[in-house]
Design goal:
Length: 240
């Protein structure tokens, strides 16, 4: 069954125009047909169509389905955007499918300047990508995506109780992420830009409680490293 998204479905029992069009025009659903709706905050509702309008599909909620498993862990990926925004959008889509909870784009000292010259990622597009990936992977929660936070501010805004890691390529006493992370924690993983973090940034991260980690022997692109980090932490927590 297809999954639909409406963040305020309890207050406004109708689908958005885009979701209404998909239900009525694409899936050919009509009055009396059943559909499942998520609110992006953990809620899953089973409903029936009352008015099959392609511009405003009105529904009636019949059932609220409890979450079968509440995640004990949380994955927050903080990553410097690259000049190729298509790759970053691809990474976001795949990370949402795998199970990321928050993605923050950070401005580091080596962040490519072309990012700032009319090519910035648009928040609306990021949300659309995230919603699509959430529905495709049958998830209930929409990750928080933040664009764009300066490096210094990101470090200042860290909260207690986080398990912090910085993945970098400098010579250091680094441990594989899967060996350093403990299941069931709230993780924050820093991934640097093309060219990696500067030595100063690595030192600043470590001063702020970020443990240096490795993602393996291969030298990965920025967006690949982000995906590998999220996948590693999610696999670590399978069965927890």
């Amino acid at each position: 069954m297809a999954l639909f998204y409406k963040p305020d479905i309890l207050e406004q029992p109708f689908l958005s125009e885009e979701e209404s069009r998909h239900a009525v025009k694409v899936l050919r659903l009509g009055v009396g047909d059943t559909l499942d709706i998520v609110d992006g905050k953990g809620g899953l509702f089973r409903a029936v169509i009352r008015v099959a309008d392609a511009r405003r599909c009105t529904i009636e909620i019949r059932e609220s389905i409890p979450e079968p498993d509440v995640r004990r862990h949380r994955i927050h990926l903080a990553i410097a955007p690259t000049k190729d925004l298509d790759r970053i959008e691809w990474m976001l889509e795949k990370c949402v499918e795998i199970g990321v909870d928050q993605v923050t784009f950070i401005r580091t000292r080596r962040t490519d300047e072309r990012y700032w010259k009319g090519k910035s990622i648009h928040p609306e597009r990021l949300e659309k990508i995230s919603v699509s990936a959430m529905k495709q992977s049958l998830k209930r929660r929409l990750p928080v995506v933040t664009d764009l936070v300066p490096w210094e501010r990101f470090l200042e805004e860290r909260e207690a109780g986080e398990s912090r890691f910085v993945a970098h390529l400098e010579e250091d006493d680094r441990t594989l992420l899967q060996q350093k992370a403990i299941p069931g924690e709230n993780y924050v993983v820093l991934i640097g830009p093309e060219g990696d973090f500067t030595p100063e940034e690595i030192a600043e991260a470590k001063e702020n409680g970020f443990a240096p980690v490795s993602l393996g022997n291969s030298r990965l692109r920025t967006e690949t490293a982000g995906l590998v980090a999220v996948h590693t932490l999610e696999l670590l927590n399978q069965g927890e």
